[in-house]
Amino acid sequence: MNTFGSTLRLTTFGESHGAAMGGILDGLPPGIGISLREVDSQMARRRPGYSGMTSQRREPDRVEFLSGLMGLDNGALVPLSDTTDKALTLGTPVGFIIRNTDRRSADYDALKDIYRPSHADFAWERRFDGIRDWRGGGRSSGRETVCRVAAGAIARQVLEQTGVSIRAVLTAVGTATDPALFAAEISRAAEENDSVGGIVECRIQGFPAGIGDPVFGKLQQRLAAAMLSIGAVKGFEYGDGFAIAAMRGSEAADRMRAENGRLKFSSNHSGGIQGGISNGEEIVFRVAFKPTPTVGWPLETVNRNLENVTLRASGRHDPCVALRALPVVEAMAALALLDAALGDGMKFAPSKR
Amino acid sequence: MNTFGSTLRLTTFGESHGAAMGGILDGLPPGIGISLREVDSQMARRRPGYSGMTSQRREPDRVEFLSGLMGLDNGALVPLSDTTDKALTLGTPVGFIIRNTDRRSADYDALKDIYRPSHADFAWERRFDGIRDWRGGGRSSGRETVCRVAAGAIARQVLEQTGVSIRAVLTAVGTATDPALFAAEISRAAEENDSVGGIVECRIQGFPAGIGDPVFGKLQQRLAAAMLSIGAVKGFEYGDGFAIAAMRGSEAADRMRAENGRLKFSSNHSGGIQGGISNGEEIVFRVAFKPTPTVGWPLETVNRNLENVTLRASGRHDPCVALRALPVVEAMAALALLDAALGDGMKFAPSKR
Amino acid sequence: MNTFGSTLRLTTFGESHGAAMGGILDGLPPGIGISLREVDSQMARRRPGYSGMTSQRREPDRVEFLSGLMGLDNGALVPLSDTTDKALTLGTPVGFIIRNTDRRSADYDALKDIYRPSHADFAWERRFDGIRDWRGGGRSSGRETVCRVAAGAIARQVLEQTGVSIRAVLTAVGTATDPALFAAEISRAAEENDSVGGIVECRIQGFPAGIGDPVFGKLQQRLAAAMLSIGAVKGFEYGDGFAIAAMRGSEAADRMRAENGRLKFSSNHSGGIQGGISNGEEIVFRVAFKPTPTVGWPLETVNRNLENVTLRASGRHDPCVALRALPVVEAMAALALLDAALGDGMKFAPSKR
Amino acid sequence: MNTFGSTLRLTTFGESHGAAMGGILDGLPPGIGISLREVDSQMARRRPGYSGMTSQRREPDRVEFLSGLMGLDNGALVPLSDTTDKALTLGTPVGFIIRNTDRRSADYDALKDIYRPSHADFAWERRFDGIRDWRGGGRSSGRETVCRVAAGAIARQVLEQTGVSIRAVLTAVGTATDPALFAAEISRAAEENDSVGGIVECRIQGFPAGIGDPVFGKLQQRLAAAMLSIGAVKGFEYGDGFAIAAMRGSEAADRMRAENGRLKFSSNHSGGIQGGISNGEEIVFRVAFKPTPTVGWPLETVNRNLENVTLRASGRHDPCVALRALPVVEAMAALALLDAALGDGMKFAPSKR
Question: What ipTM, to 2 d.p.?
């Protein structure tokens, strides 16, 4: 199960320190214009080392598109080149790879037989009959999200052409909920060789009413699945979320009224989704990120021989994964929403060349 | 999209006031003993009118099994009869229906052209080209969950035979978090013709380590999708959930140690899932339910002609859907977990006859 | 795996002598008019005992629709009743059952432990850990096709409303290829307590160009899968089929020409599909049916204890299953083609009420 | 739809003259030893120019594995290198690419606006809103099969380790059915600037009984879908195939007998599959290949402006695609059979290191 989506399907591959990460995005409509520079921009947002507050692994993370796109030159299709910006979807699967150029695998030899606390290591070996690529977490590494951002950067451009915008922001970092304090909270954790969690809020504007299935393909279900597929995410809520549990029905109901022949909602407790289907209001959801469990402190754990050991991580780690996760949240939202829209027969007009 | 699951697939059908609800549960292993009385017990837990605190629609909700099961008589397969308790799975799809016996459709004529606030009505018409079965919510009714409970009652029995137990409880009702106060909170809301939300916590014990896929089939992703497919659910979190966002990594990391040759976890912030894979600890998640938006107050809304109207619901409604949802949460958890276990090749030994 | 299709999905259940056969057809567009009498007509064509030349099991095979359809009365939606003819799809899953009223299960007790030659019995027990409903073949019975005909009768009506017609005919029965001789060939086999095979040719007219996927969802691949899912089918070919292997490329190439601004094909060796995609020409395929292996002769075989036994079938059987299979071939073609059309975004306009 | 399989899924991408072909093989069990040299051998069999009798496009077609495999060095996992032969599956998706090194795209400029007879061109444009990569057929090129052979070369090795062998041979070329005459038939067609069709027979030995699903996942259905997904295939039959239509049931029934406590079949008209499930006998099927429609003769056709034109193909083409298709047929059979086996819970023991 390395595939996300039904009508628009992203299948990914890659171990953190293998030759490359990559994926196939299948199900795009033909004839949609895509800016490859915009893909680069999204990749840059996710990149470690992008700000001073993220892990120091430095990789150009250039996406190499191998199929499914051709360049546009005065309205004519031309082969892709290294400098192509404007491309057109062919409607065939978009295959792409991102080379792993920073592969200091030897850094990880000490971890070969150790189960890192709150990482996948132990459970992984139970799942895969003891076979595990230990280098940088292998397939369970957060590096896997490069493929999501690359594919999401295409999906969001398709959506944007119909007027949909997707934007995620941090609303909490550790115990701070005032954005002015976030940088300080992260710096303090980093100084103390520790990490902090955070909460990301994502808002989607312009998404049309009538998308989503009423029973097992609810729009919130697809968004929840998209978010919980991100490694460090521990919770998802939409609209009023957990807070609504404390409300009365009379308080939480979104009244409607007609104004100038148009239906208006008086409130948006529903977060833009009712009965599993978008209602045309802003879609709002929040996601809780845990602090990365790789910290600069010695932690008690065990190795594969079931011996007690103490692990002090020496490698690079993020003081706040939630910060780097913003483009990942947006990318997964774009993939989930475009998948739902295409599945429900929404049409995307070919771009003007 | 009326199907849930990959290896074990539940497909459901039915409008609230049509002839019947029903489903097909496909992918069960052959030879597993199932108590049909136990299915009845689970159905009774979900039934409206089960306690004084739920909606007054009264239906026997008897599940009629049409295929995929045969009775057991002294170890021999025999046809199912109305009084069969002990049945055996054939490994073929289990088809079942639940008749809608309480079909006072005329009650709903007044709602035919009205969009009820915070219900599916408006978004539904956008999705289905204006075609909507208005009677009791049609397919978007909470009645659809009878099929989930029926199928889940089979799935949980399969799991129980390997030592897995699933139990959901209310941890909050409205503003009350002390169970002693829940009944009062619900009664007060009912008296005031209003409704309250709630939070349900579900704990799964005995689930083996090594189930779940590391990228797009994470166990938490499957559970989140299962929960957000329930109509009134607004949020999902597992392990420490949203609270972990405020923690430090050093605090949230689940240390391990070896004791008498066995691996032990010192804490369970992870909620039994690490890297998307079960680690053998208790699986813990929480789900937020909204208060039902059908209340006994007049609410402003619009009709299909985009005229402003005031709606005062006269029908039956639940003062606290979270209460009735306990067996639904358990059923969906059972379906999601058994699906994951079967997909990862977990074997279920034929029952002794 | 009891599901056929991707966008339009038919899931079926039922053992031959259980309570009922049934299915769920999910993915229909909303607002399409369906004649339930026309469904009855298709069911009648498949029914055993329909002509003097098929098996004598007599069952009304009435399809009971439980959801997904409402009746139409002067353009208004009304509940379905037993006499409804004109119905409208809701866009929700159509659940249906067909009761097994002719359940003389005791007839089959002698077969409980015997593996009938060229039937599923032996392989079934290997697949399902020795668990098998022996009554009339259980789930492997040809009776399972009632569900396909019921669902196909809906799918074909949807297609017909866009001008698509589907028609299957026998082109060979045993060694006879002249239709005038078919009845005699079947009668002779029946008199000799034997059975004969046959070849069915299916032609689809009016199917639009541009449906089908170029690689793993080729239209011929979907049709082949549909046909080979029918129990007695041993082969599938489309266009010139096996005969094309003996041709030269210059002979088999379908030339094109423009006539009055329209593209015309000079021949149809391709059978209406090129590169996996319909080209607007007539779609033509042929299917080979084996003679039923249940004959009135004693056949050597073994029982579950691996003892040699001689089996003389006493029950009802078809002298030529290909004859009864005509509506099944048409139904599966309709399901496969409508699935492909919906998957490729073909729009079906709501019916005029 | 660029994915084949359910439990073992191959997703491919690539246009014939784009940067690369590639794919992801997802669902392999962990710990299985794979020889990468054996993959090379299979690729060599498919390669154009492999014999004097196939198209002259020359490409090394080296498969670059990017994930899902690690090398084995004295039983220890090590990174893959260019010279690795022995590798081990990790249980994670195997991503791979094959560069298109022979990209003489300009050769195809003349075909940009022409619909080649019996090729995908015309139908493609209807399907993809007029967007088509014209270079060498783009995604509809036979070159797409490199990905199938690469993935199939892994699948077949997994099967071989349980004693399964897969072998395809030509049984007819044009009008010749004597293998001694095949080379002459192909040469003659080539000299005359024409092409010939052919029939391929595939036999699978050692495949265990009990694999396949009885209704919509029949083993023959999966094989038929696999074969009809190959571009030039026009027909599929298994066991006695089309010939069985002319037989009597008494003749075609495969009797069984017990010998020394083992069940034996007296014949194999069924071709190793009964009721959709393997019965342990040899699986036998045949596939009809059309002659390639690209011939050295001028053919009448039309262009995009619907003008009549005459096309004389100058490029490379295969005089007999059936010959080159042998490894493709074997690869697709391996993928279909391993998918079915894994889906039915067949276990593949980790290889000894």
Answer: 0.96
